[in-house]
Structures are given as structure tokens and as C-alpha cells.
TrEMBL record:
Any GO MF annotation of the entry: sigma factor antagonist activity
Protein name as catalogued: FecR protein
Superkingdom, taxonomy of origin: Bacteria
Any matching Pfam family: Laminin_G_3
Organism: Aporhodopirellula rubra
SUPFAM superfamilies: Concanavalin A-like lectins/glucanases
Amino acid sequence: MNDRNERLELIRRCLDGEATNEEIAQLEELLQADSGVRMEYLRYLNVDSVLAALPNKRESAAERRVDAAPQLQSCESRWPRFFGPAGWLTAAAMLLFSSALTLQSVKRDQSQVQSQRTQGIVAKPTAVRDRGVAVLTRTAGLQGAASTNWRIGGTMPPGLMKWDSGLLQLEFYGGATVVAEGPAEIEILDESRVVCRAGRLRARVPEPARGFAVLAPNVELVDLGTDFGLDILDNGSVEVHVFDGAVELFDVESNRDLTTRRQLNAGDAVSVDRDGTSKPVASRSADFVTPSRLNRMSNFQHQQTHRDWQSFRDSLRGDPRVVAYFSFEKNSSDDRVLTGYGSNGTVIEGAIVGCEWTHGRWSSKSSLQFKRPGDRVRLTVPGEFESMTYSTWVRVDGLDRMHSSLLLTDGFRENAPHWQIRRDGNLVLGVKHPGNNAINYQARSIFNAFRLGQWTHLATVYDSERSLVKHYVNGELVKKHRLKSIASGLLEIGNATIGNWSEPESHHQPGIRNLNGCMDELIVFGEALDGKEVRRIHEVGRP
């Protein structure tokens, strides 16, 4: 193996528990025979950020082979399982080599360090850039095609926002808070400027956000530290109401020419016609929704959607396809038991280990929080199935581990799937097919910095009849794979873990795969659901 990138990929697969036995043996031979490979291996162990430098193009765009070996976390836990009986001499030699390498590194000049970095041995993490300028924090009765993609807590970049009815609240990075009511068309320019072409809005602008500006068809409004409202009427005129503080008005497209400047103070209200002429009008503060009023409206809507979801939850008890359902509602008599049900309504109890209860998608609903390496829920799901569908509502707060468990079967048995999220944000269904052929069916880059902290619906369908694996995010199909031709036999779960991973043999030390976040619903169907059914689960459960 002469290609350096291939060697790095082989090292990564062995240390991340994704290599076959043949690949492990291949790396051991390379380490024994080649000092250069030993150097690469040691650097990989000592420089965690090299993960970012591995070339994605060397990974298949659809799936990668995986192995049953657990994720290996330290030199102590890696070496005993990595080397055979003859490998201990190699390990000792590598330790001596590591000491020599440390002495050499002290003498290494700056040009050598720079050369290695440019070769990709040492890579600096790439900074994630934020294109957002505001955060969507509340909604009530929002309707419109584009609005289905807007998420509470989501960052909003510059661009157009258009919706048919309902209210939303934007909190701009500069500090201004805007409540807008549809039908509306607003274009966000940056953290301190918006264009309002249609609709009604109310802005609360504290001192740090002073200078916040709204451009309307007939006028430009510049805040001087205030609470104001702006309403674009059907006849084309624009009303400006100042509830507190003061604002400046300029003729539209005048580049804030001071000769066009007018100041309005608290209690003032004017109507500006298409030609720019203005006249006083009666102030009507009650027509402009405040943030506190929107909060009450939003809470009322959440109560209704929670009730709708409860009706859906109850309807699943009669669905014979459900083999495991957990609503993550706190058991009042024993809060260390996660109560669910399986086929024919049989009770399934999960043993909660370490996790803590917190609020879920709605403030009136509970969820389980997974944070520490030991946090998990142990359960047993009986039965064998030709096809399966996984569905969960999860809030991922961080991707701290190489793998973050959603639902993992013990060990990695044949036809006992692993459903998890990788550190790079990929959603993965790993299945060991007959003949020790394990495949990762992946949907790439599902989670990034801007989806963290948001409630997200995930679903993965293993459809043996159509030979497909399909991944859904928030009701939308994001990736479809053909099953490998070697796929055969019935799927099973058996002993498994929610939010972590367990090995069946106590002398094995499994890699840490705890979820960092919260889960408040998990459903496993013994059949393949279609896209319409997956969308229904998302729609009825969307907070």
C-alpha cells in the first residue's frame, strides 16, 4: 500500500472500529515492516484533529463497510485488541519510537512543521461560519409554503421571508426584536436592516440595537431607541406608530437625505401615501402584537398541538405494525423505568441508567436527557422482521463522540442494525449482512452547527421487498440506497440500548457512543412505512 491517503484511511478505520479482520492484519504487517507507517500511526493517535483532514472522496458516496469491533478510545484499550500475540514486540518498539519522535519534534524547525501541515498530517479544524443574522424564536398560526422549513431556534440568513398568515418573532443579532404578522413579505438585509414589502410588524429596539432600520415602499424608518409599529395597508399607504422613544423617517431612496428627515416621538402616528406625503392618524397600539402577547398565543398553540400528538400516540396502540413504542412520558411511580409497549400492546420496560428527565418538544411533555458517558436506556425488543422503520424525535446538542447512538443492538450481530449519528453529522443505519459483510447506509451531513439544539424528526426505513434503505429528516426524504445484493435474512433487535452502546461480553470495553441531547419519542415498526406515513408522523409531532 504505497498511497499515503489509503494508509491514513486504513489507520482511521482500524481505530474507529470500522475495519475488517483482514484490514487489521494488513495494518499490523505495515507497522512491523515500515517505520514511516509507524510514524503516521503515532501521529494519528496524538493528533485528534487529523480526522478533519481525511479525504472524504475516498469514502463511498453511499455506504462504507463496517466491522463489529467497538470504537476504540485510548492506546490502552486499542493495543490489546489490535495486536496478536506477536504484536506486543511491535507495540513496545512503537513506544520507544514515540519517545524518539518526541525528542525529534523538539529539534524540528518551523519549515518542517509547515511542510507536514501542508501535506495533511496535521490539520487545523476549519472554523464554522455563521451566515445567520437573526433567530426565529416564536410562531403562532404560521401558514405558507416556505414557512414549513422554518424551525424555532433556527438561524435566519439574509433573504426573503414570505408567508400567508400567522405571526413570527425574529430576534436580530444586533439586539432588535421584531414581531411580524402575515400575510407578509419581509427581506432581511443584515442584522440591523429589513425591507418590509407587505404585512404588519412591531419592533422593540433596545439601546445596543439603536439605528435599526426598516425600508418600506414609501418611507425609510430609522430607530432612535424605541418601540414602534409599521403597517402596509391594502391601498399602498404605510402607517408608522411610535409607542415609546422616537424614530426618524426619510423619503424612500433618498439615501437618508437630511432635507427629507422627520422625527416621530412616543404617541405619534402617521400615514405615508405612495407619493411620500404624510398625515397624522390615530395611534392603535392594540393592533400590533407584542412579544409577550405572541408568547401567550404560541403557548396556546403548543397546547393544542400537544393534544393532537396525544391522540396520535393513542392511535398507535392499535397499529399491529408497532413492535416498540416509547412516548418518553415520566413514570410517576418509578422514574427509572421507561414504559413502552410492543406488539399487541404488550408492555416493554426500559431500564434508565444515569439519564435525567427534562422537558420535551412541548413544555408540558417530558423527555430524557443523555449527557454523560454512562447515560443510556437498556431494553429488549423481541421478534424478527423482514423490514423495519425507525422513527424518533431527538434534540442533538452536540456531536462529541465518533458515533452518537439512537438505538444500538448489543455488540454488532448479523442482521441486528445499528442506528446512530456520526461525528460528521451523518445519519447511519449499519447492518451486518450474512458472511460478515457489514455496510453503513448513510445520509450525509444531516446535523451541523445550525441544527444542534433543535427538535428534529428522524426516520430510517429498511425495505427488504423493494431492496431499499431510505432516510428521512423532518418528513422529507433525504437519501435513498439500494440494499446490497448480499442482504438476506430477518432483522432483529433483541437486547439493545437507547442513546448508548453495550457489548454482550463483559471483558470487552465498548467505545463511548452516548448521545448528547434529548429524546422524547421512539417508534420501531416491523414493516416499511412509505413517505406519506413518515410525513404524517412528523406533521402531527412537530412542536
